[in-house]
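To whoever is on call:

I kicked off a structure prediction for a single chain this morning and the downstream step that reads the tokens threw a length-mismatch warning. I double-checked the sequence; it's 101 residues and nothing unusual in it as far as I can see. Pasting both halves so you can look.
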Amino acid sequence: MVKEYTVYKHLSPSGKVYIGITSVNPLTRWSNGHGYKDNKRFWKDIILYGWLNIRHEILYDGLTEHEARDTEAKLICEYQSYKKKYGYNRDAGYIYGYIEK
């Protein structure tokens, strides 16, 4: 059985974005915000605003891993969410993903 992936977006009240992927149920991945404790910038704002005040959106569902990673990387570049000013992603793309030059 082939795993299916979901690409999602979190939007904080400050307007900052986090783009991510998961192969499990997104609610399980997010764990009411506790799934982001290792991302210090995002976790700080989850505590500040509260998980329920952050908007959660499923962007794409049913993707292969390669499609999901490519889509995630493109969206991170589009939103510039790897820049502290705009978001919480730690880098501009993943090993399989789109790299904008």
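Update from on-call: the warning came from a stale cache, not from the record. Cleared it. Sanity check on the structure: The beta strands are 5-11, 17-22, 55-63.
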